[in-house]
Amino acid sequence: MNTHALGKLTAAMLAAFALTACGGDNDNDTAPPAQDSGFQLQLLHFADMDGATGALQNVRPFSAVLAALRAEHPDHTLVLSSGDNYIPGPRYFAAADDAMNPVPGVAVAGNGRADIAMLNAMGLQASAVGNHDLDGGTGEFATIIGAEGNYPGAGFPYLSANLGFSADANLSGLVRQNGQPLNSIPNGLAGYGTLEVAGQRIGVIGASTPSLGNITSTGDITVRPGSGGVPALAAELQPAVDALTDDGIDKIILLAHMQTISIEKELATLLEGVDIIVAGGSNTLLADDNDRLLDGDSAADDYPLSFTSAAGEPVLVVNTDGDYKYVGRLVVAFDDNGVLLTNRLDDSVNGAYAADDAMASALQGTVNSDVDTIATALEEVLAERDGNIIGATSVYLDGRRSQVRTQETNLGNLTADANLWLARQYDANVRISIKNGGGIRDDIGYFIYPPGSTSEDELAFYPPAANPGAGKQQGDISQFDLEGSLRFNNSLTIGDVTARELYQLLEHGVAKVEGSAGQFPQVAGLRFSFDPARPGLRSQANGDDIDQAGERVRNLTVVDDSGAVIDTVVQNGELQGDPTRTFRLVTLGFLATENASNGLGGDGYPFDFPVENRLDLESEPVTGANAATFAAPGTEQDALAEYLIANFDAGAPYAEAETDTDQDLRIQNLADRTDTVLP
Questions:
Q1: Cis-peptide, bond into residue 610, ω within 30° of zero
Q2: How far, CA to CA in Å, does 148 sit from each of 111, 119, 121, 143, 236?
Q3: pTM value?
């Protein structure tokens, strides 16, 4: 361990001693040092534990670090999550395997239940509702957080003050009254409540991104506000804060799952009465200079971030990276009026604690035995699935978030090609495939930094590693790989789009490339170029502040399988030919299903609803290839599996290497090149 880590640990241990020094003879007495020193609170927090394949390796040391930090101040500690506690993916689906039935804490196998069982074992006290918590739909969300037989469900409530759950038939029975002690409403849904810490009540409020309806499956949940940006969101949340302060509570924490930390920062300045905001959804790693970070990681900003509220009082914003990589730790003191004493913040104690064996050992933390049992059971299920070989690749398949949300990637091309290939077995007239890059959740393969390097320019990329215990050779693509990359396993939908509609769909796809939004397209059967320096499409219905036509797509052609142009749709930014002519397209059902709240498809895609001549493949009789059996026919996992089986095995692996953006052919970012292959 380096000297920074040792320094932080030494200071943390001294702070723990100071907190317990006035506790008398009882070793478990953790009263604060002196009355005039203010009320002290330790907040341990995390978020976005949503499915990276390495998270199961992280969760054991994470549990040890969490337990060790909590043990320093057991009576003055809160353990909270700002959401995205799971995501559809390998471990999520592994929890539904019959092998999980005997596992304590799960007992009744079901999607996502192992994630909740691990959080229960670690003593989570409340969570915000994140977008990925709802990815399986409201019915599945209810089965994950609700109790069934010997499965206890979530031992904590989910909170969101700007969501209305009562109109959703799946969730209405889980709704609980606001303002209650949160430990009295496990399995419940509420906007806010209280937790008692050393005799004092702490208010805890949840908040979810208002764009929830565009990025997940909200069912009949009411999402507020419908427009108005962050000020309107603050106006939705302020009544919850006021209700708590009217009840005599002067210490309030907001669990805010906003997807981008800029929103949590702005909320800090707009709200009155909130002391701490725990951000979520952006995987933003805040850390101090003396925090030891995991190899390859770097801090986005300091820990904590300090702001002044609308009432002129201090507010702190905290966040850490996800996937059980870090425990966020904030030890704060309040004066007698519940105002934060920011001069008491200690960066040698507060910050991001790396969840690895070195930190667990230095803190003398012990792995939670229930977490270990659950993780081991999941690993056994996943190892079996990693042995189900589907195809092969000789190259790294790039599914990194930073790439699939900003540019064409080889994995984006591969899965878009697979969707087109499968769709043509149902309808030979399908020409185009479009999917959202945000639906690709992981790479297939791995990358490493060469010894002594932390530069991304020196990263080395490799095809999937061998897993000898599962019978997997290097380059083999397994069921496990597909379930990890295409975690949502969306159904495929075929429909007609006009030339004008296709133009607008792609304008939407590149409208927010600067923010790495999930709407960025991955495509097959077409090529297009775009200029990010031009105005992007904006729509108030999609949560933007203004309505604005997009001007980014400069050229767009429909091409055949050899790349020859079939139709020129846009040239030099102008729509060509009859704008009402139609093309047969395959996309994800998520994108092509209208959201009643804003009239848009998933990720805000502006299809003309209802989609003309719609065909939902998952509901159709199986047509053509059916060699893969682990995913439902007509879904994107099934499409990629069937495509790999038919075309790419160990003797003829997939070999299209990832290219730099100035070499991309399907999606050409004109900021990165001066030429274009399009007419």
A1: yes
A2: 13, 17, 17, 8, 34
A3: 0.72
Q: Is the CB of residue 48 less than 8 Å from the CB of residue 280?
A: yes
Strand order in the sheet with 39-46: 189-190, 158-159, 126-128, 77-81, 39-46, 326-334, 351-354
DSSP for 486-539, please give it: TTT-PBEEEEEEEHHHHHHHHHHHTTTGGGT-TT-EEEESEEEEE-TTSPPPB-
CB 340 within 8 A of CB 41: no
Facing residues of 393 across strands? Answer: 654
pLDDT of residue 527: 97
Q: What is the pLDDT of residue 214?
A: 80
Cα-flanking dihedrals φ and ψ of residue 479, to 5°?
Answer: -55, -45
Ranges under pLDDT 70 in the chain: 1-37, 51-53, 449-455, 676-679
pLDDT of residue 392: 98
Q: What are phi and psi of 147, to 5 degrees?
A: -80, 150
Contact 482, 393 (CB under 8 A): no
Spatial distance between the Cα atoms of 197 and 192, rounded to a whole number of angstroms: 16
Average pLDDT, the chain: 91
Cα–Cα distances in Å, from 211 out to 15, 360, 602? 41, 38, 10
| Residue 669: its H or E element | strand 667-669
CA distances, 560 to each of 220, 289, 511, 679 (Å):
41, 54, 26, 15
525 in Cβ contact with 418 (< 8 Å): no
Kindly give, in sequence order, each residue whose CB lies less than 8 Å from that of residue 170, ignoring residues fewer than 6 positions away: 137, 138, 139, 141, 142, 219
pLDDT of residue 679: 57
SS3 660: coil
Q: What's the confidence (pLDDT) of residue 32?
A: 42
DSSP-derived 3-state class of residue 635? strand
